[in-house]
Amino acid sequence: MEKLLGEFSIGLFFWQTILFVALLLLLRKFAWKPILNAVNDREEGIKNALDSAEKAKREMANLQADNEKLLKEARAEREAMMKEARDLKNKMIEDAKSEAQEQANKLIAQAQASIETEKKAAIAELKSQVANLSIDIAEKVVKDELSNKEKQMKLVESMLGEAKLN
Amino acid sequence: MSFVSHAEEGHESGDKKTEIKEYIQHHLLDSHDFALTSYTNEDGETVHVGFPLPVILWDDGLKVFMSSKLHHGEAVAEVGGNYYKSYHNKIYKTDAEGTIELDEHHHPTNVKPLDLSITKNVAVIFLVGLLMFFLFKGLAASYAKNSGIAKGIGRFLEPIVLYVRDDIAIPNIGEKKYKKYMPYLLTVFFFVWFVNLLGLTPLGVNVTNSISVTIALALITFLITNLTGTKDYWKHIFDPLGDSMPWYGKLPIYIILVPIEILGIFIKPFALLIRLYANIKAGHIVLMSLIGLMFLFKSWLGSSLSFGLTFAISLIELLVALLQAYIFTMLSALYFGFASETHEHAEEHDGEIQHL
Predict the structure, then answer these.
(1) Cβ atoms A13, B122 nearer than 8 A
(2) What pLDDT was estimated at residue B106?
(3) Last residue of a domain, one of B90, B118, B146
(4) pLDDT tens-digit profile of A92-113?
(5) CA distance B79 to B57
(6) Cα torsion at A25, B271, B233, B188 (round to 10°)?
(7) ipTM for the predicted complex
């Protein structure tokens, strides 16, 4: 212990304390603070970058989910639109068909009506022609047979009667 | 090495042993000049290689002169009418003839003026300080220049700085309060390490094996510990049991416990300074004794064995240089951790009492 104390030098102690404290203060100001701040900033930066990467990843996932949803919606819409279009087409065809049917029916009815009138006209004409023919016949009969007038008249009457029956 | 030069034929080995012992003793002391080596020339005169350093004395006024005046303790320096002589690397006031009067224990009885000289160790401390300042200022600047990435030697230093922060400061002091202590921990770590490493060079630097230096370092740790001590730190010393016991129960325990705790405040830094001093000093003594052995054996087998051993011990000393810096910083951080703790247990104790 005595030797230890004998080794103690006030000068060295004095200088060591002064120099060390000076070094400590200088380094604190010019080295340790900037170094630790820089390292801290860098670590913060890395942490932030990782965080934002994670965030970006999550956003991407969200975006993808959104896209998926949109796609699904679009698909559903397309489906609906196509269904509507199909329905419309079917309805149009149906309508067209029914209209055509109606038209056709109408045409047929008209045709039938006109046929009927034609027929009636034809019959009337036939009748008139028959009448003319009968008159011609009668003329001929009259011409040919003036004698048997009574008999001839009977015949005419019966013929006319027959024609009326028809 | 000066003892080589005295290895003349015909000398008894006993002489050489004493000489080596003296040389080691001498080496472990501080000196007033920066001696690199010394040898004896043909005329039998000892020639010292090195350069002088300023001697600063306080003896009824400031006395400053270069240590070359002392001629390594062989001459009397006359400054302003006073005469000074160096004896075993300590400066004494003498008469004109330079008489050193010794008492029965061979201690000089001459007056010792207050010696604030820039000794070899002070010069080394100053140089290490400069080196550290430029190294770490460079590291700080390289962050600014390279957008937060260290360059050059900073690449090597930065992980060590981070190690001190992440593995010494934060675990011992805690995430919240470590920042305040970082400058001291980093400075002391690198200072002790660099100085220890320089001590292993042939320059004969022995800063950390001077008790004055370790006392100064431990004193700063002591002051920081106790000046930043929180209420809980002092409560832990003066009232370690807290409210867990009534005062009449605590009294007989505290008569023993509190003095021990108070003693502990001083023992902790004391252990710190002795540990650093003793480890480095022992390392130097062992290394130099082994080097001395090489010259004592004077045989190819013994000397080369001794050389191998010296080499191995040198490697261990390299590790010790780092280890002692680490331990000093680590224990300082531990003490700062004690000092800055805010006792979470205190609240628990209160809670327990309330439950009771």
Answers:
(1) no
(2) 72
(3) B118
(4) 999 988 988 888 888 888 888 8
(5) 10
(6) 20
(7) 0.81
Asked if B225 and B336 count as a contact pair (C-beta separation under 8 A), the reply is yes
Residue B14 lies in a domain: no
Whether B289 and B199 map to the same domain: the answer is: yes
Mean pLDDT calculated for residue range A7-30: 89
Among B residues 159-218, those touching chain A with beta carbons less than 8 Å apart: 161-162, 165, 179, 182-184, 186-187, 191, 210-213, 215-217
What does DSSP assign to residue B102? B
Based on the domain organization, do B99 and B127 belong to the same domain?
A: no
Q: Judge if B222 and B100 occupy the same domain.
A: no
> B225 and B331: one domain?
yes
What is the band of B8 on the pLDDT scale with cuts at 50, 70, 90?
A: very low
Any CB–CB contact under 8 A between B153 and chain A? no
Residues B105, B143 within the same domain: no
Note the pLDDT tens digit of each residue in B53-105.
888 887 777 777 877 777 766 777 777 777 777 777 777 777 777 777 777 77
The total of structural domains in chain B comes to: 2
Residues of B in contact with A27 (CB under 8 A): 132-133, 136, 183, 186-187
* Distance from chain centroid for Cα A1: 104
Task: Please give the residue of chain B at the shortest CA–CA distance from A31.
Answer: B137
Q: Does B119 touch chain A (CB under 8 A)?
A: yes
Chain B within 8 Å of A28 (Cβ-Cβ)? Answer: yes
User: In which domain, by residue range, is B112 found?
Assistant: 52-118
Q: Decide if B223 touches A, using CB distance below 8 A.
A: no
Same domain, B97 and B165: no
Residue B25 inside a domain? The answer is: no
